[in-house]
Amino acid sequence: MDVSYNNLFKLLIDKGMNKTEFRTRVGISEGTLAKLSKNENVSMDILIRICRKMECTLDDIVMVLPENETISEKRD
Length: 76
Hints:
The protein is built from 6 helices and 2 strands, in the order E-H-H-H-H-H-E-H. By secondary structure, it is mainly α. The protein has a single domain (3-75), classed as 434 Repressor (Amino-terminal Domain), CATH 1.10.260.40. A two-stranded antiparallel ribbon has the order 1-2. The two termini are 16 Å apart. The mean pLDDT is 91.
């Protein structure tokens, strides 16, 4: 995993929005939401759409992890 979308899900909590509401508002598929939840790569088009609909920047939703670092190592 080279990216983390934890910031996105924190943003949803801050806005009081659940994943289903988010998916509908942004217009993404269940598969794309699953990829985001698993910290898998999604297209730049999707990330831009998220930023526009959520009125945020890429830094607000995605974190690029250093090479060879995993999410569990990031928490330590």
